[in-house]
Amino acid sequence: MVSSACELTSCTVVTPDDDLLGYAGYLDLTIDKERAAFGRTFAGNLVGLRDAPLQTPGAQVRWRTDAEAVAVVLEYQGRVHPHQCSEACAITNTGQCYTSGCRARCAALLFVDGVLQDGATRHTDGEYSGEVRVVAMQQAERRSHDYELVMPWAAALEFRRLELGSRLGLPQLLPCAPPPTFLYVAYGDSIVQGWCGDQPYPELIARRNGWRSLNLGFAGMGATPEADWGHGAAIGRAGGALVSIAIGTNDFWWCGLVAEPVRSTIVGLRRRQPLVPIVVMTPTTAWYDGKECEGGGARQTLQRIREDVAQAVSRWTNPMASRIPWHPGSHTIPVRAQPGRPEGPHPLQILPSRSFPPDPSLQILP
To answer: 0.85 exceeded by the pTM?
Structure first.
């Protein structure tokens, strides 16, 4: 096994600005000969959420080649741990490990001809820092394949280059298929971002239905502080053909009253995209269900937050737009064998097939 495709007889180095590379699933993309850097800072108050604006779960680099050997060079960025991502530690907004039971997904996912290559980009030591070369393909004969490199939720990654190797002449990129045209935009908190799971559910839903996805989930985000920053209009600028909103779980910690902020977000989105289908999911089950928050002057519970979100959606009326369905988020997370202890608030498994329909025109009933 060769660690670099350029150890073979002929080698082609593909820089990020090559016209035959495809990029998808991003909000912002900066490209030059040295790097392709993704970003998703869509509002001014997101820069305080640690590395979340640099973490771009679901963003893709796509290419096609018949090279016998293919290697991808990535560089891990970020401001925490220091400049590292550890699979044993998901970093919180305070720079601490979240819990021992929450594994961070630091490795990019690699699909070859649409099939996930298990462990293709995983480090043996579980630590990710600086420049990393990962082997994407080694085959005995020259045969064309389609490749997709999908960015993880827990790491800030930049794409540096491809290395294509061959014993049968100079290898080249071939034109790759364009990404799907239907764009699904998912807005919310760390559960949308993908915390503690192998893959965030927006990317799973999109792949299952042949869509593109844009993940606008940010760890630590709530409904009440964000409404004043125009998130609804910012979501609308992304131009999705379907939008989901799953927000409110974090508002429990500051006793937030979420009905008006959620309504304000919907109004801002509708002003930008009057007819886009929207699905709203209420907060998922969590260990603090049934408890009351402390402080803030409001006796808030997670169940009341769910009711507030549903109320905000139910009061929305626009004769030109379709009804906005809301879906109980508590139905999307399995319950552990221990009674009353859900697998959350950051589940290892979320059930996307029960969260949203394969056809956005279908109605979802409460």
So the answer is: yes
